Each structure stands twice: as C-alpha cells, then as structure tokens.
Amino acid sequence: MNPQIKRSIKFSITIAVITFVLAAIFSIISSSVLNQVTWITGIVVVLIIVLLGVVFDTLGIAATAADEVPFHAMAAEKVPGAKQAVIITRNADRFASFCNDVIGDISGIVSGTASAIVILNIANLMGQSDGSTFEITLNVLFTSLVAALTVGGKAVGKFLAINFSTQIIIFVAKIIAFTENTFKIKLLPYNNGDKKKNNKK
C-alpha cells in the first residue's frame, strides 16, 4: 500500500477514535453541569462551548494560511515556540483537521445538546414544558441565537486567521512549548525529519 495512503488511513482512524472519546467526555460533562446549575449559568456554559468552537476553528484556518518561512527565522533567533510553530505549519492539514473537524464539530454538536437542556430547564421553571407554545418559541429563538453567534463568530475568526495567521500560530506555539516543557509531554506530531531540521536551527 502507498505510504501516504497508509498514513492517511491511520490518521483518519486515530482522529475518529479521538473524536468519539472527546465527544463522549464533552457530552457527559456538559449534561452533568447543566442539570445542576441555574438556567442563567446554563446559557453561559452554552456560550463558552460556542466560543471554544469558534476559537479552534480560527486556529485551524490560521495553520493552513500561515507561511512556514517566518517561523524558521524566529527559530534561528531562539524565539520561544518557533520550533513548535514550524511543526504546526508543516502539519497544517492534521492540525486543522483536529481543530476544525474534531473540536469545532464537537463543540457545534454539544452546544446544540446543551441548548436543548437549557431550554427544557427554563420551560420547566415556567411550568410550560411538554411541547407548549412557550417552549417551542424559546427553542426557536435560543437555537437561532446560538447558530447566529456560531456563524458570526467563525466569520470573524476566518478574517483574523487569514490576516494574522503568523501572530496567531506563534502565540499558540508558545503556549504549546510552555506546556510541553512544563509537563514534559508531547502535544505535536514530531518526527525524525522535524527533529533533525529543528536541531540545525
């Protein structure tokens, strides 16, 4: 089998497994939290989930829009996170897949589920559950608001990602570098080729 095809299949399976696990974790946590808090707090939780999706969507686009060259210059000047930025841009397809398809899509699905729980809680509080006109109207309004915030937020994120891709990626790379150095864990897909090239910097 072609090495590239084999690598693609392996990555796809890995992403699918990660998505399944993260989706389950996100759903369990959000459902547990929303069933134990007030409806106002529930709305805040939904907005945080939406924001999370927008942020990761922006990161994914920034990775594909960023040029690798400036980060090599930063690495030569020993700028913290520069080597990680090179790895991100070199693996932009996989980084974007994780940010956009995994975290971004999971956030969209979970925000929908979370919205339904919030709406049900508000309707029960008002004594207007079981498919009442109030619940239906609230469902339409809140779902539309979440959709508008998601689409609008991602539109702004795309603009920022395209026009400020270098700044965004180096910022994220610095966070990753700090995390890796502090907790001694590997967050990026380093390989021998990357290590050799980085060691020359």
Automatic annotation (TrEMBL):
Transmembrane annotation, as ranges: 12-31, 37-56, 136-153
Source organism of the structure: Oceanobacillus limi
Keyword annotations from UniProtKB, A to Z: Membrane, Transmembrane, Transmembrane helix
The protein's name: CNNM transmembrane domain-containing protein
